[in-house]
Specification:
about 425 residues
Length: about 425
């Protein structure tokens, strides 16, 4: 079960980070600028949102998902809209999300109103954007597929801070149920069947909007997936032109479900979403989270092997340093953390600056003395883990090349810390 949930979280972050550079660009502009995205890339200087991100960084989709999980941990997994809003606002202020245009259109207004002590319901009742669906995937890991109504009500409670309309709650519920089904059955046909099964009930939980049918669009997306099973380019063209890939829930959720069905593999899914055009990071976060859920047969290293293979053209294997990569001499250290109780999590947060400093020191040490035995690094990491988390340990999974070491380690550390509280 832990590996399933980790698969969802890592899949979400991978899809988000891979789709970050061309976020909200048209498919035409994506193709003209990038040709084909095959790797994690820095945000584009010409993109009004992604310019502020580095390769491997995820965006507000995954950040808000983790922020919501932080809130649920505090409230013993009983959704509290005030607590969730407070956590999201704290994150938004820390990341300067309002100033840097990181937030989606609905979340931006709703959180501003909450900040001013005003109700956002009149606005959130009319919302049609995908802010609720983009961050909901981890919630699907808390339910079985038989708990359809319970899942929908929980999704509505978690989403109510910013989204309370029928289409937004239904879209979020469909993504959460797709994750639950993929986790439980590991079957793409069953995943779509279960996702479609919650639409009607979830629609009745929100305020009515003049929106198209999510179910009808999803079924059309599955038909396109079957028709173009051997032609990825034609599949993406038709998803973009027929289903749509914009920020509206009625476009992005059916697109994400169709791409998850088409690929049912984190690596393939993330790359497809990144090359789609439109809301690439959000569609990637939703779709790759679904694809990550069935990964019980893989360990943490197996799930993140995608990162390694996408970063180098060298052959990689556990505990081997890979040199001569396409981007020069770089290092990626993938680590696995174990947290057994909340005290360790709090200590981790308290000393995160020290932790970051030690990791930076490690990078510089390796850069100056690349010939040093790998065991020296293991010892340093072991000491670091004992200092920071009182006995939590590092499982050194793999070494590879990546100039953005700190981003990858820090962000995936944040994901990993949550798994043992769900």
């Amino acid at each position: 079960m832990k590996n399933h949930i980790l698969g969802t979280l890592y899949g979400m972050a991978i899809g988000d980070a891979m789709g970050m550079p061309p976020e909200l660009w048209s498919r035409k502009r994506c193709l003209e600028y990038y040709g084909k995205i095959t790797d994690f890339l820095d945000g584009c200087p010409e993109n009004i949102i992604s310019y502020q991100y580095k390769a491997g960084q995820f965006t507000d989709d995954t950040s808000q998902a983790l922020t919501i999980l932080d809130s649920l941990i505090e409230t013993d997994f009983i959704p509290n809209s005030q607590n969730i809003a407070t956590h999201i606002l704290e994150w938004a202020e820390k990341e300067h999300a309002f100033k840097n245009n990181i937030l989606g259109p609905t979340s931006k207004v709703a959180l501003k109103l909450f900040q001013e002590g005003k109700s956002a319901k009149e606005f959130s009742d009319e919302s049609v954007s995908n802010g609720a669906a983009m961050r909901i995937a981890p919630i699907g890991t808390l339910f079985s597929t038989t708990q359809k109504e319970e899942l929908c009500r929980y999704v509505a409670a978690v989403s109510s801070v910013t989204h309370t309309s029928d289409i937004t709650l239904a879209g979020a519920s469909m993504i959460a149920m797709a994750v639950a089904s993929a986790l439980e059955y590991h079957d793409r046909e069953k995943m779509i069947e279960d996702a479609l099964s919650v639409e009607e009930y979830a629609m009745n939980l929100g305020a009515s909007t003049p929106s198209p049918s999510l179910g009808a669009r999803t079924k059309l997306g599955i038909l396109l997936a079957q028709t173009y099973a051997n032609d990825e380019t034609a599949f993406l063209e038709n998803i973009y032109n027929v289903i749509g890939a914009g920020v509206n829930t009625s476009e992005s959720v059916p697109a994400a479900l169709a791409i998850a069905y088409y690929s049912f593999d984190v690596r393939k899914c993330a790359l497809l979403c990144a090359n789609l055009g439109g809301d690439t990071d959000t569609i990637g976060a939703m779709a790759a989270a679904i694809c990550g859920a069935p990964l019980m047969k893989y360990t943490f290293s197996g799930i993140i092997l995608f990162l390694l293979l996408s970063q180098t053209n060298s052959k990689t294997c556990p505990n081997i340093l890979c040199k001569n990569s396409t981007s020069g001499s770089r290092l990626l250290l993938l680590t696995s953390f174990r947290f057994s109780h909340c005290r360790r999590l709090l200590l981790f947060r308290k000393y995160h600056k020290l932790f970051s400093f030690l990791l930076t020191l490690l990078i510089r040490l390796w850069q100056r003395h690349p010939s040093h035995n790998i065991i020296c690094i293991f010892i340093l990491l072991k000491i670091t883990s004992n200092i920071i988390t009182e006995g939590c340990y590092f499982n050194i999974s793999m070494f590879c090349c990546n100039q953005h070491l700190l981003f990858v380690i820090w962000q995936f550390t944040i994901i990993h810390k949550l798994i043992f509280f769900i």
